[in-house]
Amino acid sequence: MKVITEEKLREELGRDSPAYYCIPEGTLLTPAAREYLQQKSIRIIQKERQKQERDLKKTKVKPEEMTSLKDDILVNKAHPIIRFRGRLDSLQALIVLYQAVLQEEGENEKLLEDLEEILCILRLMMRCEVLGEVFRYESILGLTSRQLREQSHDPLKNYGIAPMQLPSWKFGKGYAMLNHLRTAVRETETAAAEAFCINDTCIRKDILEGLNRLSSAFHIMMCRYQAGMYPDKN
């Protein structure tokens, strides 16, 4: 599958500003390229659909093994992007489940609030992926992208927690849940790489970077939990 990046688009169009840009069949437009066309008020249209999709339009019947990728584009449910969306959906569901359990266990409200913040960020990521928008965030847990990396890489300096510790049940149920969520983010990131990295070109670097930072965020929450920054209500 071919990919049209913003750089390729700029080279192709030069100083021209056509009324519309036609995407060839079997080609993907990166979010940055799509945003560039939108900024120049160039309408984006698809050149043609596969014969199977044209037949589906005529019959108006969607086979059970297919689902909507976007607009009227149908793909097999095993499509890499559909698998990624499934992982992202499962991750959100796991956070909601653990929020409910932690609330019943009497865990600290700040822990629940931090999980809610991450849940909202994941929902934004889902929306941006489906609509082809660029995924952006200002901070996670009050930390910028750079701060997330720095604090995650040096837990001793920032939280007094020894680095490279193996997770243990001795650290508590909340800690174990946060560790599970961290691994779930990693699995979602792997699914994203399979979906969006094509021929050594990543068409959704924004999503891959976002998931990487969310993994750091969960590691930081684990450190905060160990450091007693999420004391329970009891």
Automatic annotation (TrEMBL):
<keyword id="KW-0067">ATP-binding</keyword>
<dbReference type="GO" id="GO:0009236">
    <property type="term" value="P:cobalamin biosynthetic process"/>
</dbReference>
<protein>
    <recommendedName>
        <fullName>Cobalamin adenosyltransferase-like domain-containing protein</fullName>
    </recommendedName>
</protein>
<dbReference type="GO" id="GO:0008817">
    <property type="term" value="F:corrinoid adenosyltransferase activity"/>
</dbReference>
<keyword id="KW-0547">Nucleotide-binding</keyword>
<dbReference type="GO" id="GO:0006580">
    <property type="term" value="P:ethanolamine metabolic process"/>
</dbReference>
<dbReference type="GO" id="GO:0005524">
    <property type="term" value="F:ATP binding"/>
</dbReference>
<keyword id="KW-0808">Transferase</keyword>
<dbReference type="InterPro" id="IPR036451">
    <property type="entry name" value="CblAdoTrfase-like_sf"/>
</dbReference>
<feature type="domain" description="Cobalamin adenosyltransferase-like">
    <location>
        <begin position="59"/>
        <end position="223"/>
    </location>
</feature>
<dbReference type="InterPro" id="IPR009194">
    <property type="entry name" value="AdoTrfase_EutT"/>
</dbReference>
<dbReference type="Pfam" id="PF01923">
    <property type="entry name" value="Cob_adeno_trans"/>
</dbReference>
<dbReference type="InterPro" id="IPR016030">
    <property type="entry name" value="CblAdoTrfase-like"/>
</dbReference>
